[in-house]
Amino acid sequence: MDPIVQAASVLAAALAIGLAAIGPGIGQGNAAGQAVEGIARQPEAEGKIRGTLLLTLAFMESLTIYGLVIALVLLFANPFAS
Amino acid sequence: MLNFLVAPNSFPLASLEVGHHLYWQIGNLKVHGQVFLVSWFVIGLLVIASLLATRNAQRVPRGIQNLMEYALEYVRELSRNQLGEKDYRPWVPFIGTLFLFIFVSNWSGALIPWKLIKLPEGELAAPTNDINTTVALALLVSLAYFYAGFRKKGLGYFAKYIQPTPILLPIAILEDFTKPLSLSFRLFGNILADELVVAVLVLLVPLFVPLPVMLLGLFTSAIQALVFATLAAAYIHEAIEGHGEEEHAP
User: Transmembrane stretches, by residue range (chain B) (predicted)?
Assistant: First the structure.
């Protein structure tokens, strides 16, 4: 493989996963904070809030996972490797 | 590339292979054999469990029948929450099959020591860590919601593409492509990421340290099965309900 392509791929993979973690991190922090606030205000609704929180966290997590998939494609199945 | 991740000589349990498969040649097709083997195992497990549960059904459920009734109630509740009281009944089998298959395959990849079975090439793992499996499941969901929409509204289903305003037509068409894409990537990425993290940790510290991450992996796998089933039900509900169709509702 061309060393330039290799270096660019590794760098791009690192950037992909790192940048993809920023937004969901902020979003998950917001969601978790609001959920804690909700539980503090209404402790009897804890079960329902927790279920919804876990589901929404999984949705936000998937955004990072998209970045991870791109990183994995660049590392293990690079389309520019030929 | 990245040969440090493939270390079969240093520690036999810690080898990690991405992109190595057991290839079977069927006609002109080259298929990934290890995915088929584990999928058949999962399907067999589910079929045997269902047969055992229903073979001698009692009025007061015990043992495996109790377990399967609990699973059925869980799945029914899930689809009722998404699809609504009126339309959920015919979609319970589809959504339940998706949920149970993904759930059992994710957990089988994490819980069953497949490493003990040697393959000539590749390794046995959860079938959902292959992108082909998840794309197939996601395309099934696409077919299902198109079918649901057509069955409910006929050709009027296409009205939803231009319903609020025709300006959004490209985005509405794009949505049909991004739905299966995001569904399949989410499942595939999560399961593969779990296995990679566990494998890398096992490579570094073989004993005890990976256990919490494995538990986290089990948790994530279960949540991802739930997310896939929930999203499938939500897409079907969207196709049935439509955007601007309230005035036609009976």
Answer: 31-53, 91-111, 131-150, 187-209, 215-236
Q: Is B19 on the interface with A (CB under 8 A)?
A: yes
| CATH number where A53 lies | 1.20.20.10
Structural domain boundaries enclosing A43: 23-76
Tokens of B177: 């492509």
User: A77 contacts in B (CB within 8 Å)?
Assistant: 19
**Which long-range contacts does A10-19 make (Cβ < 8 Å, 24+ apart)?**
A10/A74, A10/A75, A12/A71, A12/A74, A13/A70, A13/A71, A13/A72, A13/A74, A13/A75, A14/A71, A16/A67, A16/A68, A16/A70, A16/A71, A16/A74, A17/A64, A17/A67, A17/A68, A17/A71, A19/A67
Residue A10 lies in a domain: no
Pairing status of strand B29-32 against strand B23-26 = antiparallel
Tokens representing A43 are: 């402790």
CA B148, B151, B156, B158 torsion: positive or negative?
A: positive
Three-state DSSP at B102 gives helix
For residues A27 and A50, give the distance between their C-alpha atoms in angstroms, rounded to a whole number.
16
- Dist CA B238 CA B83 (whole Å): 9
Q: How far apart are CA B233 and CA B206, in angstroms?
A: 41
- Across the interface, whether the CB atoms of A72 and B192 are under 8 A apart is answered yes
pLDDT per residue rounded down to tens, chain B (250 residues): 444 444 443 444 444 556 677 778 888 888 888 888 889 999 999 999 999 888 877 888 888 888 899 999 999 998 998 888 888 889 999 999 999 999 999 999 888 887 777 777 777 888 888 888 899 999 999 999 999 988 888 888 888 888 778 888 888 888 889 899 989 988 988 888 888 888 888 888 878 888 898 898 899 899 899 999 999 998 999 888 855 444 444 4
Could you identify the residue written with the tokens 């029948």? Answer: B65
For residue B102, the Cα-to-chain-centroid distance in whole angstroms is: 4
pTM score above 0.90: no
Q: How many folded domains does chain A comprise? A: 1
Chain B contact set for A6 (CB, 8 A): 1
